[in-house]
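seq:
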Amino acid sequence: MLVDVQDSDEEEVPVLVPVEQDEEVPALVESSGTNNLLDDNIPDIPVTIITGYLGAGKTTLLTYILKEQHGKRIAVIVNEYGEGEAVEQPGALGVGNEKYEEWLEMTNGCLCCAVKSNAVMALEKLMEKSGKFDYVLIETTGLADPGNIGQTFWVDEGLSKLYLDGIVTMCDAYNIDKTFQEAGGKLTECERQIALADVVILNKLDLITTAQKEKVKQRIQSINSSCDIQYTTHSRVDLDTILGIQAYSSAAPPSTTEHNISSAISTVTMTTDCILKRGDIEGALETLLWEDADSTKSDSNKGSHEIEDTGKMKILRLKGKLKTADGWIMVQGVRDMFDITEISGDNIPYQHLVFIGIHLDRKRLCDVTKMRVR
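struct:
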């Protein structure tokens, strides 16, 4: 009990007494209440963000992850406002309404938590169970911008033991073309989710023809030519293709295939033969992401499938490997945040910097970066 000395005139100062020679002095021990997020003995844990339109198959995928015996220990954060798994069908994933914000251990060794608000608190609680999981998967709502969540792992020091491993976007192969057509040429949240994706899962493949599959594939690649596409039925995907992919610790040269499909969102790959200065690279990115940025707020949270198109350039994702006077570096960015790390130059065929965004101005990108379009 704490005592305020000013309010206790009769409080006596404790007297120090000598310890007898045969008396054992208790050793000081570290408190067990340390923040596991800062424990250097805990290995860094990869985090995968999974997003996608309503009906794309996220519930089916999460059910598979949490119930099947696939041999992986995955902690899944389910968003309450998702496509029904935590609201309309709370029992589907073994998450009852009374279990919000608490981590449940599933029979296959995975963990699950349903969150009503900020997933960061759930992550902090999760680290108390360190050693029981190897991967973290965060499910977002159908209209969420995964870029906002991805930035958290670069700016929140409290999550230092977690790192963003990749963004996975699920698409409904049967309805995705209808979504684009109904938008009437306007930008959709679906396109932005594809633009930010490191992996796109094209689900419900059994409902379309080979010709339709090729058409959808080309549309996806016209938006994001650097993403990997996985084709599935009933959301049964090889988990090794979406977990531990190290999308933010590697940046392989993208496909150079061009797809002539009209879309406001596209991919532009830059390259150069010159040795660059790191300071010049940082300055160029700051100019493109901050000074040239279209500051228009997304209206996706209002429940609209469309996003406002101001006609201005907006970079959603960037990645690449460049050679500087001090060695090779890797560049990764989401929205207005970017990170540069030093890497080995082994097995890098050429310098490249990939921009994925809305109304990308190739001339402006060339002028600012001093690079050329590949």
